[in-house]
């Protein structure tokens, strides 16, 4: 929750789920903790089916030969992947998407770290106004600002350069990242920093030596979030990059979808290529997702 | 900060100490730290917003430069009196947001309550049910285009089992496109709510339930008197942000249906995008944007007031 910084978990201890020893049927009922098993597995199982069928479907289309209607991807083929990677230049798109994602990650984390530190540790005149602006910016739709943004980038001669997309993605990531990071910093006791000052550190070294290591889980979560968003987002790349060799993966997918005759195998393979980095990042940050990271999920 | 500055201005102590409780701090350090973020947001959010307001009062169309110039409130008059498409897309946007957010909240709450319990395989279960959350708008569309494909999609296999007809495509039929799009967006949106609610559920004190148990409250009463009040702020905030996001988001519908069939699934932002990007009618699109922005702001304020956000007896 944006307003509840205190509840964003301490980065120091990423709240490990206590692996409580399974307690088998006790007669005393204890609230929601011990609903009957079927009340858990039945709805969860049905929801899991709804979640997983689409994933299975895309795998199926990507791995079975064109024209097959089998419900099992066997014999398995990788022709679709080869095709989208080379013929549909997903190789280039992939490279562009990685560049944009990593650059957005770095810019967002560094800038939000500086701003977050100021918000967490100082009282200054424009602070309230700045916080209000951060919150209000959540209501500004990126899509509705396409035209003025396009004009700005045209003036800066940045149309068709990946930098335009990086800037746009960073700007729209910043408010939440900054609020999150300032919450993480607030959870690091100020006395730790003060102790470092007494030992002769200046503000910067104290921050680097004492605070930064404790922020690592939070920063990883925020950075991954920025990466995933930049990777997934579609509209800025579509509008600001018109050259074929500057396009990104989501734009490539859209091209595959809106082609006259949709090549389903290629679409599925392209979709899987698009999903791989996100899945990797997702598996990586899983630990911090529920606790520290949930407040960042507001942009869905 | 004020203290820090005061200390910094004092004359240096005669004896060199190893360090002090407060390091020398420049009084403008916090401003320096927020400057990059502030400047970026000023340049790429505040300025564009203002220029949208400015263009909304003008005719501005690069393909018809002879008409460009000050237009006063003509654009707005046209929106509210002549433009039926505006009302259609606004109605659809409202319908879309209400249905999507309502269902996402309902399913998300249920899902969060379920995976908050202890059971065998919980970690894996959580990871799996939350996984669509990470999938982007375009990728969601791609997946559901495959599922809904008239030749090889799920309808074909349903038809094999005797449900429905061969060759139907849920995305190109005006009677099925809405539920089809809703389901696709639910697939990705429910995990979002579930994650937010679950995060907040973790902070409910177990003692409360035990006390309620002692007082003889059943599970339903515990839910309505402990769980739900505790979740209120989280639900209010996530519902609002999600509603704004669902209203503004164009990725999914743009790629899944393209606003069709027959404009059946065109939201207001999609209409705006079409007006500005395809029809080059920037002035009119800016006026539409201004209207959309005002509606969102008004809705947000009313919603926060009605729900007494942050206040109450919590």
UniProtKB/TrEMBL annotation, chain A:
It is a multi-pass membrane protein. It is found in: Cell membrane. Its main location: membrane. InterPro entries: BP-dep_ABC_trans_perm, MetI-like, MetI-like_sf. Keywords: Cell membrane, Membrane, Transmembrane, Transmembrane helix, Transport. Pfam families: BPD_transp_1. Residues 94-285 form the ABC transmembrane type-1 domain. GO terms for biological process: transmembrane transport. Signal peptide: none annotated. SUPFAM superfamilies: MetI-like. GO terms for cellular component: plasma membrane. Coiled coil: none annotated. The chain crosses the membrane at residues 40-63, 98-119, 131-153, 165-185, 206-231, 264-285. Belongs to the binding-protein-dependent transport system permease family. This is Transporter. It comes from Streptomyces avermitilis.
From TrEMBL, chain B:
Residues 90-303 form the ABC transmembrane type-1 domain. GO terms for cellular component: plasma membrane. The chain crosses the membrane at residues 28-57, 96-115, 127-147, 282-304. InterPro entries: MetI-like, MetI-like_sf. It is found in: Cell membrane. Residues 1-10 have a biased composition (Low complexity). GO terms for biological process: transmembrane transport. Pfam families: BPD_transp_1. It is a multi-pass membrane protein. It comes from the Bacteria. The keyword Transmembrane helix applies. Residues 1-21 are annotated as: Disordered. Belongs to the binding-protein-dependent transport system permease family. This is Transporter.
């Amino acid at each position: 929750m944006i307003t509840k910084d205190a509840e964003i978990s301490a980065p120091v201890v990423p709240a490990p789920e206590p692996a409580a020893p399974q307690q088998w049927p006790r007669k005393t009922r204890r609230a929601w903790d011990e609903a009957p098993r079927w009340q858990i597995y039945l709805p969860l199982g049905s929801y899991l089916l709804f979640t997983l069928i689409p994933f299975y479907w895309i795998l199926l289309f990507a791995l079975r030969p064109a024209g097959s209607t089998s419900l099992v991807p066997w014999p398995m083929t990788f022709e679709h992947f080869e095709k989208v990677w080379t013929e549909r230049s997903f190789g280039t798109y992939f490279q562009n998407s990685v560049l944009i994602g990593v650059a957005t990650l770095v810019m967002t984390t560094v800038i939000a770290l500086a701003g977050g530190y100021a918000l967490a540790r100082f009282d200054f005149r424009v602070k309230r106004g700045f916080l209000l602006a951060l919150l209000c910016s959540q209501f500004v739709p990126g899509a509705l600002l396409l035209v003025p943004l396009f004009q700005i980038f045209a003036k800066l001669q940045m149309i068709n350069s990946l930098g335009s997309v990086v800037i746009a993605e960073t700007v729209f990531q910043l408010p939440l990242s900054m609020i999150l990071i300032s919450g993480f910093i607030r959870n690091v006791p100020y006395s730790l920093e003060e102790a470092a000052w007494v030992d002769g550190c200046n503000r910067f070294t104290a921050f680097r030596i004492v605070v930064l290591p404790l922020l690592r889980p939070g920063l990883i979560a925020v950075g991954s979030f920025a990466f995933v968003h930049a990777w997934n987002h579609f509209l800025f790349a579509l509008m600001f990059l018109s050259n074929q060799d500057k396009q990104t993966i989501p734009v490539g997918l859209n091209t595959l979808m809106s082609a006259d005759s949709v090549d389903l195998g290629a679409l599925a393979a392209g979709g899987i290529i698009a999903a791989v980095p996100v899945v990797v990042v997702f598996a990586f940050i899983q630990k911090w997702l529920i606790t520290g990271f949930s407040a960042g999920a507001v942009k869905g | 900060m004020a203290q820090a500055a005061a200390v910094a201005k004092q004359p240096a102590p005669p004896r060199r100490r190893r360090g002090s409780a407060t390091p020398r701090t420049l009084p403008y350090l916090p401003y320096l730290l927020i400057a990059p973020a502030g400047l970026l947001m000023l340049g790429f959010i505040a300025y564009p917003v203002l220029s949208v307001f400015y263009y909304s009062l003008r005719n501005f169309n690069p393909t018809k430069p002879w008409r460009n110039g000050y237009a006063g409130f003509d654009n707005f008059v046209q929106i509210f009196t002549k433009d039926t498409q505006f009302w259609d897309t606004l109605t659809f946007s409202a319908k879309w947001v209400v249905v999507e957010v309502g269902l996402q909240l309902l399913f998300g709450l249920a899902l969060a309550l379920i995976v908050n319990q202890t059971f065998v395989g919980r970690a894996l279960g959580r990871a799996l049910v939350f996984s669509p959350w990470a999938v982007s708008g375009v990728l969601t569309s791609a997946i559901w285009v495959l599922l809904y494909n008239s030749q090889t999609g799920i309808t074909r296999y349903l038809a094999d089992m005797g449900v429905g007809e061969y060759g139907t495509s849920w995305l190109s039929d005006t009677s099925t496109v809405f539920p089809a799009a809703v389901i696709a967006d639910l697939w990705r949106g429910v995990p979002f709510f579930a994650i937010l609610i679950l995060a907040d559920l973790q902070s409910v004190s177990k003692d409360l339930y035990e006390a309620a148990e002692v007082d003889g409250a059943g599970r339903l009463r515990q839910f309505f008197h402990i769980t739900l009040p505790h979740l209120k702020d989280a639900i209010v905030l996530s519902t609002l942000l999600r509603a704004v996001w669902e209203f503004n988001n164009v990725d999914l519908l743009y790629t899944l249906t393209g606003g069709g069939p027959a404009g059946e699934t065109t939201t207001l932002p999609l209409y705006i995008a079409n007006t500005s990007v395809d029809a080059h009618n920037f002035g009119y699109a800016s006026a539409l944007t201004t209207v959309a922005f005002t509606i969102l702001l008004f809705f947000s304020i009313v919603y926060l007031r009605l729900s007494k956000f942050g206040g109450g007896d919590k």
